[in-house]
Amino acid sequence: MTKDTTDMDIDWMMMVIPAIDYEDLRRIVWEGAQRNGFAYSATPDYSGKNNRRSVAVGDEDGTLVAFTHLEGSGFINISFHSGCMLPTHTYDLDTPYKQLPLPSVEEMFPNLRIVDAFDENSNLNPELSSQSGPQSGTQSGS
Fold it and tell me: 67-92: per-residue pLDDT in tens?
């Protein structure tokens, strides 16, 4: 943390979700970026021992949400980097970092539906598999 009142960078990491297919993740993030007018970037080539690939969205103020798909580990790491400057009249810059009032996940992502990863029997929630959840397109049947 800096005492320079002209700039402050707040950063926290490590929200983890079970992995979905990278192309599904890329498509979902791209559609959200397009719908909300955010910049979008993707790193489609594997890197590292966990076959890491990433997708990110950001705004003109430098705020960035990055989704790192770790195929080798079976999960996606979501990181948030704030490019905002805190209003100096509201916050005391001498307050320790952990005491700054940060937004909740619901405030940051109001359209995100949060579900439990496991049920009461420690079984993986079937809604988290890539085969479940709302399907796009037309389906036929009898």
Answer: 888 887 888 888 877 776 554 434 44
Q: What is the pTM of this model?
A: 0.50
Residue range of the domain that includes 66:
10-128
In a domain, 19, yes or no: yes
> Could you give the dihedral angle defined by the CA atoms of residues 46, 47, 52 and 56, in that order, rounded to the nearest 10 degrees?
-80
129-142 burial string, b = 16+ CB within 10 Å, else e? eeeeeeeeeeeeee
Task: Evaluate whether 69 touches 55 at the Cβ level (below 8 Å).
Answer: yes
Structural domain includes residue 1: no
**Phi and psi, residue 127, nearest 5°:** -65, -20
